[in-house]
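queue> pop job 88
queue> type: inverse folding (structure -> sequence)
queue> payload:
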């Protein structure tokens, strides 16, 4: 059995002053930590879901991923700044130090916060909600561990995010 590691989140949130939606995960997976960017596991469907929602090609490089997010007013970060964790196991997380989500909210135009999976929402409610007063809306996880949810079902459920962005977008 693997041992706990005490790890600190090593890459920055992606957002700017035009970001209107924040998507929060828990903590970067082993693959994401290796790549130094969000949702780095090749079987994670996060980038395929977002690309489908905004009718864009699936981004491959970190720069393409950042561009997709910022062009569509989407911010991405994780609830946890540091923790003890075994590998990529969200269920093993303990000794949480929360990320400074209020800082991102203060420096953006975020109106809606979504959690990529139940654990992100649970951690947000425990550590962040008391500081922000802004509720998080749970979306099914895009993780390969959530095999019960097909890509098509994820896109359908996550489409509420796109509807919110379209409703909030200034007329072009």
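queue> result:
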């Amino acid at each position: 059995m693997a041992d706990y590691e005490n790890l600190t989140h090593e890459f920055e949130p992606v957002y700017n002053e035009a970001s209107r939606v924040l998507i929060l995960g828990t903590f970067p997976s082993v693959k994401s930590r290796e790549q130094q960017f969000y949702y780095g596991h090749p079987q994670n469907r996060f980038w395929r879901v977002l690309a489908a929602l905004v009718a864009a090609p699936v981004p491959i490089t970190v720069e393409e991923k950042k561009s997709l997010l910022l062009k569509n007013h989407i911010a991405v970060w994780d609830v946890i700044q540091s923790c003890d964790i075994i590998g990529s196991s969200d269920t093993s997380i303990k000794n949480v130090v929360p990320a400074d989500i209020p800082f991102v909210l203060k420096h953006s135009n975020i109106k809606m916060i979504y959690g990529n999976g139940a654990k992100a929402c649970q951690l947000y409610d425990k550590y962040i909600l008391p500081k922000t007063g802004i509720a998080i809306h749970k979306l099914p996880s895009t993780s390969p561990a959530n095999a019960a949810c097909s890509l098509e079902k994820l896109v359908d459920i996550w489409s509420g995010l796109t509807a919110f962005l379209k409703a909030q977008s200034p007329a072009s």
